[in-house]
UniProtKB/TrEMBL annotation:
Segments forming domain Xylose isomerase-like TIM barrel: 63-279
InterPro entries associated with the record: IolE/XylAMocC-like (IPR050312), Xyl_isomerase-like_sf (IPR036237), Xyl_isomerase-like_TIM-brl (IPR013022)
Domain of life: Bacteria
Name listed for the protein in its UniProt record: Inosose dehydratase
Length: 307
């Protein structure tokens, strides 16, 4: 099944476009453009529906857009087995997944690492290669920041998790929202400076870095300059005048400049659409139409990577 899955990924890459990620043994792997489940959750919520309540119906909608790869979020290993047959039915692949983790306290970190590794083991039949994690804040919605001891503990555990995933042929990609950019971005920087690049890569969530730094492209591109070589995945979202739009398009962030900057570094990350809705977003289209538009625009912006 693993060999068939690899062959299937390669065939989809030809038709849907591919990003290139160096594997743990120097093998170049090709992944089609993917989409995170969170964007679908926000569209479904707006329509009064529950994404994933009926996995078959949800993934049927997903596949109808032309998307070939899916990035779900998992909280426990048994969720993987429920999803795999539905992905197979709709000929969808899962190059990357998003997992929660709590790493700033030693006791919580031990349990969290065990949980993520159990999920990783359950993912073997899917040939998943990237595990994205955003370590939990102290408390969701709290203005409090982690102290130095908690940051040091988190970085140690992040590196440990990455080393264990590497043994499984997987890459750990550190992800952030806006919280990690507070207080001189000390949490963001320490997670990258205090971990081994061989163990911890970066999933650059472009818009959260932009928003977390006060809607600053200067800050965004400074981070690309500092850590570009560690970027293995991009989460793609766009806003206009600070407001998330329904579809990926031209807007506040200059994605053409981002492509040029990464090309200059010879970095070609996995592309994951995550064009989400917020309360002030326009309301002109449904999830299927929006994601079809996402794919069209992505093909224009990332055309040099999709040959």
């Amino acid at each position: 099944m693993t060999m068939d899955r690899r062959t299937f990924i390669n065939s989809l890459a030809v038709s849907a476009g591919a990003a290139f990620l160096p594997g743990t043994e120097g093998i170049v792997r090709t992944f089609p453009i993917s989409c995170n489940q969170y964007s679908w959750i926000t569209f479904y919520d707006r329509e009064g529906k529950d994404w994933g309540a009926n996995l078959d119906a949800s993934l049927k909608d997903f596949a109808s857009t032309g998307l070939k790869a899916y990035e779900p979020a998992f909280t426990q290993a048994d969720e993987v087995g429920k999803l795999l047959p539905v992905l197979k039915k709709y000929q969808l692949v899962m190059p990357s997944v998003y997992v929660n983790s709590s790493l700033h306290k030693a006791d919580e970190a031990t349990k969290s690492i065990e949980s993520v590794l159990a999920i990783a083991d359950a993912l073997k039949p899917a040939d998943t290669k990237i595990i994205v994690t955003n370590p939990n804040p102290l408390k969701w919605g709290s203005p409090d920041n982690k102290n130095d001891a908690e940051l040091a503990e988190q970085a140690k555990n992040l590196d440990k998790l990455g080393a264990e995933l590497k043994k499984r042929g997987m890459t750990l990609a550190y992800h952030t929202h806006d919280v990690e950019l507070r207080a001189a971005a000390r949490e963001f920087h320490h997670m990258l400076l205090a971990t081994d690049p061989k163990n911890v890569s970066l999933c650059l969530d472009v818009h959260w870095v932009y928003r977390g730094s006060g809607n600053s492209q200067i800050a965004l591109f400074d981070i690309v300059k500092l850590y570009g070589q560690r970027i293995v995945e991009l989460h793609l979202r766009q806003s206009k005048d600070g407001i998330w739009q329904e579809a990926f398009s031209d807007g506040d962030i200059d994605y053409r400049r981002l492509v040029a900057a990464l090309k200059a570094m010879n970095v070609t990350p996995h592309l994951v659409l995550e064009q989400c809705l917020e309360k002030t977003s326009p309301k002109t289209m449904d999830a299927v139409e929006a994601h079809k538009k996402d794919l069209v625009y992505s093909a224009q912006i990332f055309k040099d990577w999709l040959k």
